[in-house]
Amino acid sequence: MIELKGIEKSFGQQQVLKNLNCVFETGKVNFIIGKSGEGKSVLTKCMVGLMPVNAGNITYDGENFINISRFERKKILNNIGMLFQGAALFDSMTVGENIQFPMKMFTAMTAKEREKRTDEILEQVGLTGKSALFPSELSGGMKKRTGLARAIALNPKYLYVDEPNSGLDPLTSIKIDGLVREITDRYNMTTIVISHDMNSVIEIADTIQFMSKGEFVWSGDRHSILQSNHPLLNEFVFASQFMREIKEKFR
Amino acid sequence: MPIFKSVGAYSALMGRVFSKPEKSRVYFPLILKEMDKIGLQSVGIVSLLVLFMGGVVAIQTASNIDSGWIPRWTIGFTTRQSIILEFSSTVVCLIISGKVGSNIASEIGTMRISDQIDALDIMGINSASYLILPKIIAAVIILPFLVVLAMFVGVVGGGAIAIFSGAVSYNDFEFGAQYAFRAYDIFYSVIKTVFFAFIMSSISAFHGYYTHGGALEVGQSSTRAVVYSIVMIMIANFLLTQLLLL
User: Fold this and answer.
1) CB-based contacts of B159: which residues, under 8 Å, 6+ apart?
2) Inter-chain contact A78–B121, Cβ cutoff 8 Å?
3) Contact in structure between B80 and B208 (CB atoms under 8 Å)
4) Residue B37: phi, psi to the nearest 5?
5) Cβ(B207)–Cβ(B170) under 8 Å?
6) What pTM, to 2 d.p., does this model score?
7) Given CB atoms, is A186 within the 8 Å cutoff of chain B?
8) Is B214 exposed, middle or buried (0-12, 13-18, 19+ CB in 10 A)?
9) Which of A165, A236, A161 shows the shortest CA–CA distance to A199?
């Protein structure tokens, strides 16, 4: 479980995150949605320690993440996996080496054990036999799957997924969504997905936080999102004619 | 970045670079890889440039000796001294700054803009140390060897060019090249190289590490890395020369 209490973040005079309070529950796929530039990425960076917050507190299963020593923070970070928007694979390493990298750095596993674990994960994400390829030889979907494989290499408790479907075709997007769901269920993770993609939201979201101008202005689940009368949420969710027509039919 | 902010950021980055690494043994293969990239892959270009530098120094010295009072062996002496004291260390490090410095900045800069550095940080790895320390150690170890090689190629090759072009006889060049030789000059040059290697690798890495934006900014970081490295090498050259030769 990840808990945010009164999170605030400013850049100079501009306040980007305003008193954010929220609980992301274990075993659930928690979505943070919102328009571009509303603070989703900044919030994610604060939550994983890439940016300091100005006020508030973040706890991981009750353990404080703010104002702690580097050593204590490292312990929590070892339990966090993240899939970046562009996958952020290390270009100089093969798929297998990318996945083995965290194992090499943080475990005492032998080369054989690492290879075994890599094969297992590659099978889970549907990339069996692709271990020797370099990131430049992969398609967008394969890169995301490799990124996901690397993120779960150490069996983390918390998984962050940033825009999992950006740049992917609808079929591949559904496969990636399915993988996020499956991995969350299998490892009982607290998963946080940052997304604009309403298909993903409808497909796999357990909880949804809608962000506008640095605040959570609506929260609910994938069923209630279609029925909500929140004007900002409606403007975001039903931005396209197609979605508006669906809403009419749904009513 | 204003100068004080840059100096502060550079110092803070170096603090992170030299903090205790996560797993020291992971660094060893990285250092070897960097030694290959920084040193061994530069042997060809450095040898070629120093060879012609030696030749040019010898021929220019020969063309400027028009007094009968100055012996011809001065050509060998001047070539040796120029190559050992200045060309092998300073000029070679300037060449390496252009070749390797821009490579370091663009490699780390690309990692920054493609979130690879953030990925390392989120894993709990000290990205500054993991990415930069092997490059600094490799440069500090391998560049002195490259400079010693440059001394040899510069003096011998320069002499050969001067002799074949008829600017000086073999005996005169050989006598001059051995005249009043001080081993301390080689030591001086190697010590300078150690400092230059640190300056070049750390400044280039600094500019790469703090790249923000996209491909355009990576190019700008790469250019800044080379410019600042060259300026700092020249300043360090002056200070070290004052310190070591006077």
Assistant:
1) B54, B58, B76, B79, B168, B173, B174, B177
2) no
3) no
4) -65, -45
5) no
6) 0.90
7) no
8) exposed
9) A165
Tokens read off for A41: 């990425």
Locate B124 and state its tokens.
């709990």
Cα(B189)–Cα(B196) distance, rounded to whole angstroms? 10
Q: With an 8 Å Cβ cutoff, is A234 touching chain B?
A: no
Task: Give B-chain residues touching A77 at CB under 8 angstroms.
Answer: 122-124
What's the mean pLDDT in A74-101?
93
- Prediction ipTM score: 0.89
Antiparallel, parallel or unpaired: β A2-11 and A14-24: antiparallel
Residue A250 pLDDT > 90: no
Helices vs. strands in chain A: H and E counts, helices first: 9, 10
To test the contact with chain A by mutation, choose from B26, B107, B108, B122 the residue with the greatest count of A C-beta atoms within 10 A, namely B122
Reduced to 3 states (helix: H, G, I; strand: E, B; else coil), residue B187 is helix
Chain centre to alpha carbon of residue B145 = 11
Name the DSSP class of B20. Answer: P
Note the pLDDT tens digit of each residue in B18-49.
998 878 888 999 999 999 999 999 999 999 99
Tell me, yes or no, if A90 comes closer than 8 A to chain B by beta carbon: yes
Tokens of A140: 């967008």
Distance to chain B for A80, nearest Cα, Å: 7
Residue by residue, DSSP assigns A170-188 as HHHHHHHHHHHHHHHHHHT
**How many helices (H) and strands (E) would you count in chain B?**
11, 0
Kindly list the residues from chain B whose CB atom is less than 8 angstroms away from the CB atom of residue A86. 114-115
Q: Inter-chain contact B122–A85, Cβ cutoff 8 Å?
A: no
Q: What is the structure's pLDDT at A235?
A: 86
Q: What is the pLDDT of residues A212-245, one digit of tens each?
A: 999 999 999 988 888 888 889 888 888 878 777 8
For A198, the token pair is 């309403």
Dist. CA B172–CA A141, nearest whole Å: 70
Asked if residue B22 lies in contact with residue B130, where contact means CB atoms within 8 angstroms, the answer is yes
Cα–Cα distance, B234 to A63 (Å, whole number): 51
CA distance A74 to chain B (A): 5
Cβ(B39)–Cβ(B145) under 8 Å?
yes
Which H or E element spans position A195? strand A190-195
Establish if A89 touches chain B: CB-CB under 8 angstroms: yes
With an 8 Å Cβ cutoff, are B122 and A90 in contact?
A: no
Q: Residue A137 carries which DSSP code? A: G
- Contact: B22, A104; criterion CB under 8 Å: no
**Token couple for A55:** 């006020």
